[in-house]
Amino acid sequence: MENRTRTSLAPMVWGPLGMFEDLEKFIGERMLDRNMFSFPDLTGRGYRLPAIDLREEENRYVLSAELPGLAKEDVSIEVSEGVLDISAVKERSNEETDEGYVRRERGSMQYRRRLALPEDVEAEAIEAKLSDGVLELVLPKKKVAEPARKKVDVQ
Asked: 44: pLDDT confidence band, cut at 50, 70 and 90?
């Protein structure tokens, strides 16, 4: 079997064996995580991207984000310089004691999504509601003033 030691300066040699080793490593990491539907942690941050839907109505936008298993205390929403930042963290811990042994499991879920807001959103009037694992944000549009009309007499 080929020894595939990688250093930052050594070029990586591609081969079918290496491809299968990389795939096996990837699947092994995902199985330990028990969540094959999350994005691989390529950033080192470990965030999941919540699925969102955005629809435009006459005087507002409505954004829905899926945050299953979270309470409103777990969710943080911030708006700064035209960017909407939705983040959530849920810590969980489970401990079982039985006949002289203790089993502890700990974990956390982290969600984060940053979106550029349309220019016509009234950021100070954004409303949020979390119900049954779905976060709904109402993003009202700025009221556009009607252009002033003045009758000009012809002389």
From this structure: very low
pTM, to two decimals = 0.58
Instruction: Compute the distance between CA of residue 36 and CA of residue 28 in angstroms, rounded to an integer.
Output: 10
pLDDT in tens, 58-89: 999 999 999 988 899 999 999 998 899 999 98
| Annotated domain spans of the chain | 13-46, 52-140
Considering the domain 52-140 in this protein, what is its CATH number? 2.60.40.790
- Single-letter residue type at 119: E
Q: Which residue has the tokens 């550029």?
A: 116
DSSP per residue, the chain: -------SSSPPPP-HHHHHHHHHHHHHHHHHHT-TTSPP-SSSS--B---EEEEE-SSEEEEEEE-TT--GGGEEEEEETTEEEEEEEEEEEEEEEETTEEEEEEEEEEEEEEEEPPTTB-GGG-EEEEETTEEEEEEEBPPPPPPP-------
pLDDT tens digits for 117-154? 888 999 999 999 999 999 999 999 998 777 788 888 89
136 vs 53: CA distance, rounded Å: 10
